[in-house]
Amino acid sequence: DGGITQSPKYLFRKEGQNVTLSCEQNLNHDAMYWYRQDPGQGLRLIYYSQIVNDFQKGDIAEGYSVSREKKESFPLTVTSAQKNPTAFYLCASSRPGQREIAKNIQYFGAGTRLSVL
Amino acid sequence: AQKVTQAQTEISVVEKEDVTLDCVYETRDTTYYLFWYKQPPSGELVFLIRRNSFDEQNEISGRYSWNFQKSTSSFNFTITASQVVDSAVYFCALSEASGGFKTIFGAGTRLFVKA
Q1: Which chain A residues are Cβ-neighbours of B47 within 8 angstroms?
Q2: Of B98 and B12, more confident
């Protein structure tokens, strides 16, 4: 079945530790996204990538880093610089057309819930 | 600036009741797209509908219907004869043609449907 797989489902971070959240898709989509979801705040964009080896900062990129070495994979690292990492993290992908990028529908993974020990 | 407001934080209804989820948006673009997504307890968001700014026709899909009114900048979602399986968080979202890949999500409305 085609879809987006996020792992792990739950993750715990110790103070000062970097942790990496995995996101893999087999939908053959070019664009991938990372969102952070906090209670009552909707989804906020952390990073997005339009193609392999290219990515752009979203609204809340500080304390996070990403890579896009393969089309299928877009891992997110939560660094020790992110002082409030506890949240639900969602990965998404889309296959935007050459025009009208804004109309593209996003497909989401089941999320990773990150907590601080 | 673009903005999406879902004023209803939580709604609780009894099964078979009709329920409307409100969505008000702000944008300066003339070309934009509005979306509704459903987030069940499993966590992943599921796409429900997309509307472009030039199409104000209402849409009905089974028990779901959407009312898009540019005059009031609203894109409301109605569930008819609600069911327990409709319990979820529902997000309204906006993408502007000038905004590229950026999608703005509302804060979401949590719907509880009681048996």
Answers
A1: 105-107
A2: B12
